[in-house]
Design goal:
Layout: H1 14-27, H2 29-38, H3 50-58, H4 64-76, H5 82-87, H6 90-95, H7 100-112, H8 116-121, H9 124-132, H10 139-149, H11 161-170, H12 179-186, H13 193-208
């Protein structure tokens, strides 16, 4: 870890999000139009730590409703912390609804004993590198964790399909941008790429009638 390295702006309140949204709107008329449609953007902050990553793994490849149901089953079984998951037999996790793959991912996360306090001080790229070294945690999960659990203002998730689709419609692109192309577009939104993501998700919700991110 690099505790002395700068981590950039941290989004802590709705005022932080509003500041970033105003900055983006002043520099990009397309985003300004989207902000007029969507209104104030949500904070989308939650606690960091093991529980946040556990929820991300549970929610992989299932609907939001299914993820909530699975989380409730895990909680009812007392499988909510790293010690409990590390000590539980595979059968207990399977009985709570975890697939063989998610059982392996959760056990690896529990046994990794990550230093979550150190992650709060680590640069964005280091946070992503540490998390993606674990089985079952890809760039998207790591970026979402950095944005919503750590409040990193300049983290973006270019591989997110809802962000790609929102950008396609909003900017009238011929097709959905690739992750690389969307990351290139997002460079113009730095140092508030995390707020730009919130705006694109909000726009996606407006035009599609459903959430793009849990």
């Amino acid at each position: 870890m690099s505790p002395a390295a700068p981590v950039g702006r941290i989004i802590e309140t709705e005022a932080c999000v509003a500041e970033g949204a105003a900055w983006l709107a002043a520099r990009d008329p397309v985003l300004a139009r989207a902000l007029e449609i969507c209104g104030p953007l949500p904070l989308r902050r939650h606690a960091d730590g093991f529980g946040a990553l556990m929820q991300a793994i549970i929610g992989q490849q299932v609907s939001t409703a299914s993820a909530k149901a699975l989380s409730a089953r895990m909680q009812a079984a007392g499988l909510t912390g790293p010690e409990a998951i590390a000590a539980a037999p595979d059968e207990a996790l399977r009985a709570a609804g975890m697939s063989r793959q998610k059982t392996r991912y959760l056990r690896a996360l529990a046994e990794a004993r990550l230093d979550y306090a150190a992650l709060r001080r680590a640069p964005d790229a280091e946070v992503v590198a540490v998390l993606t070294a674990l089985p079952g945690i890809g760039n998207w999960t790591a970026e979402i964790y950095a944005m919503f659990a750590l409040g990193r203002a300049d983290v973006f998730a270019p591989g997110d399909l809802a962000l790609q689709e929102a950008a396609r419609i909003l900017y009238r692109l011929d097709g959905r941008p690739t992750p690389r192309a969307l990351a290139g577009m997002a460079r113009a939104w730095s140092p508030w790429r995390g707020v730009a993501a919130r705006l694109l998700w909000a726009y996606y919700r407006e035009i599609k009638g459903r959430e793009g991110v849990a």
